[in-house]
Amino acid sequence: MARVALVTGGSRGIGEAISKALKAEGYEVAATYAGNDEKAKAFTEATGIKTYKWNVGDYAESKAGIEQVEADLGPIDIVVANAGITRDAPFHKMTPEQWNEVIDTNLTGVFNTIHPVWPGMRERGFGRIVVISSINGQKGQFAQVNYAATKAGDLGIIKSLAQEGASKGITANAVCPGYIATEMVMAVPEKVREKIIAQIPAGRLGEPEEIARCVAFLASDDAGFINGSTISANGGQFFV
Ligand code: CAA
């Protein structure tokens, strides 16, 4: 039977490319989304990948949604915690709401996505966790105290889970994308974006598929000895 993969935020941006890449690898894929019904419907029509709507920042919603996915497709073997938002502002202008929204979605959302599937993975002796962090969790970013905190937090999560899951056949790894050509990056003011691109040695934004291929590898049997690691895919912009 095909393994089942869950991709949060899987109908748009980097998540869309990940969902498609995992389907192409032969997995049964479920993609979650938070609000854009129209896009999710079009995505399912185009790809045949089922979509589920829930707020990853809410534990009860996540747990119920995951139970529904497992009822429909079977036990989840692969989790890609990809859903993320930005609420950029220089720190002196950042509001507690901007802080909390980003923490809830990007950090607590990762907990809420992994925690309900973890016991099943332990019982079955297999699991693949891939968290989509960011270059800005590695290096920090002007106007992203909230976002950078969550993306750095993701790296703490996978390093700890790697140690807890290894004896149960579960790996936990992260991908740190640099600036990728998605709506999120296109929302950055054009002048600012041009300056950012000038800092990327590759001279261009990354493509979502370039991140998806990293995820497909980490989800594969071939990656079984890779645990607690981070793949940086950023065109040479930052080295750890
Ligand atoms: N470094 C240093 N200074 C910077 C700066 C930077 N990167 N960016 C802006 N500034 C400075 C400006 O020059 C300006 O300085 P002055 O006041 O002296 O002129 C000041 O900061 C900006 O002040 P504003 O009042 O104009 O700022 P604002 O409240 O309008 O905020 C902004 C603007 C939100 C910072 C906007 O510039 C922005 O969106 N920047 C991009 C932030 C960014 O890179 N976000 C990443 C999004 S993509 C992503 O997150 C995906 C991923 O994982 C990579």
From TrEMBL:
Transmembrane segments: none annotated. GO terms for cellular component: cytoplasm. Pfam families: adh_short_C2 (PF13561). Signal peptide: none annotated. InterPro entries: Acetoacetyl-CoA_reductase (IPR011283), KR_dom (IPR057326), NAD(P)-bd_dom_sf (IPR036291), Sc_DH/Rdtase_CS (IPR020904), SDR (IPR050259), SDR_fam (IPR002347). The keyword Oxidoreductase applies. GO terms for molecular function: acetoacetyl-CoA reductase activity. Residues 3-183 form the Ketoreductase domain. SUPFAM superfamilies: NAD(P)-binding Rossmann-fold domains (SSF51735). It is an enzyme of class 1 (oxidoreductase). GO terms for biological process: monocarboxylic acid metabolic process; poly-hydroxybutyrate biosynthetic process. Keywords: Oxidoreductase. Coiled coil: none annotated. SMART domains: PKS_KR (SM00822). Its EC number is 1.1.1.36. Belongs to the short-chain dehydrogenases/reductases (SDR) family. This is Acetoacetyl-CoA reductase of ethylmalonyl-CoA pathway. It comes from Salipiger mucosus DSM 16094.
